[in-house]
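Ticket #341: bound-state structure for zinc ion.
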Amino acid sequence: MLVLGLETSCDDTGAGIVDDTRAIRAHVVASQLAEHKPYGGVVPEIAARAHLDVIDGVIDAALREAGVTFADLSGVAATTGPGLIGGVMVGAMAGKAIAAVRNLPFIAVNHLEAHALTARLTEDVPFPHLLLLASGGHCQLLLVRGVGDYELLGRTIDDAVGECFDKCAKMLGLGYPGGPLVEQAARDGNAKAFDLPRPMVGREGCDFSFSGLKTAVRTALEGRENTQAFVADMAASLQAAIADSIADRVRHAFAMLDERGENVTAFVTAGGVAANQVLRARLMQIATEQGAAFAAPPPKLCTDNGVMVAWAGLERLRLGLTDPLDTASRPRWPLEEIAKA
Ligand code: KG4
Ligand code: ZN
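RESOLUTION: The complex was predicted; output attached.
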């Protein structure tokens, strides 16, 4: 089995090819960072146009990297949501066109499921497992029972965690995207320098909240100059507050599952924010404490890419889950609403 996967839901044009031995045969990503940088965030119209400009070349590059042609593929997968709809449609149309012309099965992939299943490509993660999905648009804890079988345990009641990193980075004058820049700046900072709130810590359930943290950073910045030392201390303090808050929520999720008698032996984290090393170390520590195996994709597979879409497509294809060519693209598509395997 050989599957091509296309990702165009935000600001990365990705094409990946994987096979059923879990080998990554191609991993090509064209980033639009330069186009969006002047605006300090992703501009949907610019993103859609940029995907359209490069998608053919990105697909060609992936085929060349894998040393295969369309004739060698067993299926074509594309993200059909959730995401910026103009961009999603570019990848979905390209995938459907290849499937139609080559008479290949088409697999409509939920972007969140693609993030969620990536750890099963890089490590042998069994079902059921607990999943923390932390990205620019989402922050949720889910019980993953199988492909297409997700139960939402908790989610953010306001901003996504990546959004919090990005907005605070902007206030600190670090640029976009903020997560990696905050992580980098934090290396030289003191995480105890500022006493930022730990949102939701100790609260029942496992929902998240990050907007208060953003406000606290804004207040702390008032009348201060963004000197290098100050920015480093604030970045380290912010990262520590986020890690503390997430750690508490994950512990609560484990406790909830335990109370229900769910036997969860693995804890997986995915999404762009899962690339953060401080957070990963913390999450690994909690997994150990809970007696669960910890799995997180390598950082380059945490942020948006085509490989994760190809892998989710392959997991679905081998269960016989394919989709018609008139499958609609969806700006909103919660993971717990996707069809069960
Ligand atoms: O999964 P992703 O690439 O796109 C979405 O589906 O949202 O996630 C992007 C988010 C951005 O908010 C970015 O700042 C954050 O992931 N991110 C990080 C790191 N790398 C990316 N956040 C914290 N630390 C990082 N190293
Ligand atoms: Zn993503």
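RESOLUTION NOTES: The chain has eleven helices and ten strands.
TICKET STATUS: resolved
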